[in-house]
Amino acid sequence: MEGLPRNRTQTTQRIVEALEEEINEWGWQAVAVNRIAQKAGVSKTLIYRYFGSLEGLMVYYLKMGKLFPVFTPQVLDHLRPLQKSDLARIWYRQVIQTYRSFRSSKPARELLKATLSESDPTADMVSEALDEELTRLVEQLTFVEGTDTKAVSAVILGAMSYLTIMAQNNRTVVGIDLRSEAGWERIEEAVKLLYIGVNKLAVDSDEVTLTSQLVNAIDDQWP
């Protein structure tokens, strides 16, 4: 919302916060524009004017940078690896951080659950927006040529999405309790091992090359 008048920026923030509260209370399927408007202290007409529809508001929420990081070119330059052996750390850190964010936010998890719904226009828009954001994230952090990073990412991110949904439903998977931190520590260690294995294949392959390098070091900013 950069560049917009201050009052519109503040109003948009109130609407987004009201949407989060609404999803947290009612789940994504029972969200109501009237309640969002009441919580935000605005008219329903204003929400439609700003976002076009309830679905448009949800898509805006998904794309505003709260759930998926938006890297500037400068940050990407600092993240760019010097050698292929650095790739695993970049990949697994971002995957782990992204899904920690989902697990800590019920509204985010609710929207993730929407991707499993069939024949629902709202779910279709949410699913498309989520996929666009994941695709953007993967494309930004690829840093290599000569391998199908999208297919690899689809397998791992798809699995992490499924596990996150199962955790919200208080389920176990292969005997691992996804309601516990100990269970998720095991999952995160597995994610690291998978990316390290994929990274080793990339390092050993003559067909895989790094994209052009613009900096002299990796900025170690992720936890």
UniProtKB/TrEMBL annotation:
Domain HTH tetR-type stretches: 9-69
Record bears the keyword Ligase: no
Residue ranges: DNA binding: 32-51
Mention one GO molecular function. Answer: DNA-binding transcription factor activity
Q: Is Cell membrane given among the entry's keywords? A: no
Keyword list (alphabetical) reads: DNA-binding
Recorded superkingdom: Bacteria
Q: Which InterPro entries match?
A: Homeodomain-like_sf, HTH-type_TetR-like_transc_reg, HTH_TetR
Q: Which organism is it from?
A: Spirosoma arboris
Quote the protein name from its UniProt record. TetR family transcriptional regulator
Q: What SUPFAM superfamilies does the annotation carry?
A: Homeodomain-like (SSF46689)
Instruction: Give the matching Pfam families.
Output: TetR_N (PF00440)
